Amino acid sequence: MAKSKNCHALPLLLALILFFTLLGTSHAGGIAIYWGQNGNEGTLSEACATGKYTHINIAFLNKFGNGQTPEMNLAGHCNPATNSCTKFSSEIKDCQSKGIKVLLSIGGGIGSYTLASVEDARNVSTFLWNTFLGGKSSSSSRPLGDAVLDGIDFDIELGSTQNYEHLARFLKAYSGVGGKRVYLGAAPQCPIPDRFLGTALNTGLFDFVWVQFYNNPPCQYANGNITNLVSSWNRWTSTVPAGKIFLGLPADPAAAGSGFIPADTLTSEILPVIKESPKYGGVMLWSRFFDVQNGYSTSIIGSV
Ligand SMILES: *[C@@H]1O[C@H](CO)[C@@H](O)[C@H](O)[C@H]1NC(C)=O
Ligand SMILES: *[C@@H]1O[C@H](CO)[C@@H](O)[C@H](O)[C@H]1NC(C)=O
Predict the structure, then answer these.
(1) Quick one: the chain helix, strand, coil %, rounded to 5?
(2) Looking at the DSSP assignment, which residues form a beta bridge with residue 245?
(3) How many angstroms separate the CA atoms of 26 and 189, rounded?
(4) Is the pLDDT of residue 304 over 70?
(5) How far is the CA of 111 from the centre of ligand 2 (A)?
(6) Are 218 and 226 in contact (CB under 8 A)?
(7) pTM value > 0.90
(8) What is the pLDDT of residue 26?
(9) 108 - beta bridge partners?
(10) Rounded CA gap, 140 and 145, in Å?
(11) Residues 113/69, Cβ–Cβ less than 8 Å
């Protein structure tokens, strides 16, 4: 009796698994967060210890290109000019030991950056490789110490629109050198094509594209209406070649001019729809500071 019962149970179980797999092809994702632009958001190690984040973008290297000496700005966290940001080296390694990818974000809303030519893009790529990735340079010329970051995130919002595709190619050419992959991330605005990053994204070289679905009324959530956001998401996931696409959102109403989505709306109405795409990578939040204030990642993580 017992034997024949087991014989029937297995095919039934397999049929059920198949049924639910076909019914809900939804994909699990992670939460990417920007850290670095507010001295009151806590340390990198604290952010990583929450267990909420899979990707951290250290923001920003906001001066580079056109022959300028590159500069990093981490607000009140530390001062690159006095080399006090090297204290984050061990924290970066600590985050990486938890499986979290740590990228350096270049650009941002305030700064002085541009790529004047292909040669300029090559020089910036060499600088990034030697200063933040697996290249060679003395510890004192590495603002984040000897930690080897997982990649570079492009958050290009000003300056020239040119040559970012070359920077992406030069950086990706370092992937695997010394045995470590170089990941590329990008934070375009949701209107397609992004003015600064459209050409670079079309190279197909980007692993993570966290689209800013905020401060952009034509393609964001507004007043309970998810139509514009979902149709924009569908265009991103069907037309832009990229490894994974993330839904970029403000972690708090105060984090952006517009586009904040209440957590319950996100989890009940939006995530179930966008997770159907195999390109879905998760949610990106601006920023760690606002996430600490609002607890947004805590509210959504069970559904991401
Ligand atoms: C690129 O770097 C080389 C070598 O350091 C330098 O001679 C050249 O002027 C740089 N080009 C630009 C555009 O900054
Ligand atoms: C939601 O927005 C779309 C696009 O702007 C519009 O066509 C539609 O009527 C809106 N739906 C509601 C319920 O307001």
Answers:
(1) 40, 20, 40
(2) 209, 280
(3) 25
(4) yes
(5) 37
(6) no
(7) yes
(8) 83
(9) 156
(10) 7
(11) no
Fold assignment, 28-301? TIM Barrel (3.20.20)
pLDDT of 5 higher than 70: no
The one-letter amino acid at 75: A
CA end-to-end distance (rounded Å), the chain: 44
* Three-state secondary structure call for residue 65: coil
Atom of ligand 1 nearest to the CA of 67: 14
Q: Is the pLDDT of residue 97 over 50?
A: yes
Is residue 222 classed as helix, strand or coil in its secondary structure? strand
Count CB atoms within 10 A of the CB of residue 46.
Answer: 13
* Ligand nearest to C-alpha 231: 2
Q: Which of 41, 71, 119, 157 is catalytic?
A: 157
Residue 123 beta carbon below 6 angstroms from any ligand 1 atom: yes
Residues in contact with 22: Cβ distance below 8 Å, sequence separation at least 6, in sequence order? none
pLDDT tens, position by position, 276-289: 999 999 999 999 99
The domain spans of the chain are 28-301
For a substitution probing ligand 1, which of 115, 118, 119, 162 has the most ligand atoms within 8 Å of its CB? 119
The mean per-residue pLDDT over the stretch 247-265 comes to 98
Q: Is 157 a catalytic residue?
A: yes
Separation of alpha carbons 280 and 208, rounded Å: 10
217 lines ligand 2 (CB under 6 A): no
Question: Confidence band (pLDDT; 50, 70, 90) for 162?
Answer: very high
Q: Ligand 1: which residue has its CA nearest to atom 12? A: 120
Q: How many CA atoms lie within 13 A of 219 on its CB side?
A: 20
Yes or no: say if 281 and 246 are a contact pair by the CB < 8 Å rule: yes
- Number of the ligand 1 atom closest to the C-alpha atom of 122: 1
DSSP-derived secondary structure letter, 32: E
